[in-house]
Amino acid sequence: MKKTIIRTLASVAGLAVIALGLAACGSTSSSSSKGDTVDSELVSKGKLTVGLEGTYAPYSYRANGKLTGFEVDLSKAIAKKLGLTADFKPTKWDSLIQGVGSGRFDISLNNITETPERAKAYSFSTPYVYSRYILITKKGNKDITKIADIKGKKTADATGSDNEALAKKFGATVVPSQEFTTSLQLVKDGRADATINAVSAWSTYAKTEDTSAWTATEIPSSDVPAAKIAALLNKKSTALTKAVNKAIKELREDGTLTKLSKQYFNADITEDK
């Protein structure tokens, strides 16, 4: 009788262990399923495919043939938080946003401003930079000293960029120019009256190049608020967008975002001040 009771208790204990094991397996499966949700939204499993220009210092550019810059390092840090490796796809500006929509890239980090128009078709991460604008004219140009003066004038700006939208908002005719150095040359040659860009881009250019041919005037935030720069993602990538936002939040909290900003911009431009 005692042996029967002991066997029965052992059987019950064994079933309990099996039940616990199944519960544990169920928990692992759920966790894995969360990971698979992000994986299912990626262009390539295990990789965060990033679209950027690679020609726009200090955001992304080449130094000694190697891709570097603020958004390059930020992309790597985000990918690491997601347990992925960053796979960069240098692309011209006018194909970057379309590349996210068509599924060529998972994400694009390229000093992209969140606008109501873009937000209709794409998702944006939380902002990681607040970019202020600068107005650049040819040295000696007294007709343009503030943003309102570009009305009726020609500005050299990239097609589809926030700079182009700003120029048109203030009444300028835009001469298409995909690269910052080209825009500067157009202004210098008199083929455009001005160009609009980020203060950070001009500051970086001025560190190594002769700027005596131009006059640069920072546009007050009272005239034009700082642009909210964020990562652009496909609307369908809901899990990835959530994961990227979490990663950016952690990078802000652990000081990585500020550290990278000071490294590449010599200032913390990650806060809306």
UniProtKB/TrEMBL annotation:
Keywords: Signal
Ranges for domain Solute-binding protein family 3/N-terminal: 47-268
Domain of life of the native organism: Bacteria
SUPFAM superfamilies the record matches: Periplasmic binding protein-like II
Signal sequence, start to end: 1-23
PANTHER family per UniProt: ABC TRANSPORTER EXTRACELLULAR-BINDING PROTEIN YCKB-RELATED (PTHR35936:SF34), MEMBRANE-BOUND LYTIC MUREIN TRANSGLYCOSYLASE F (PTHR35936)
Name of the protein described by the UniProt record: Transporter substrate-binding domain-containing protein
Species of provenance: Lacticaseibacillus yichunensis
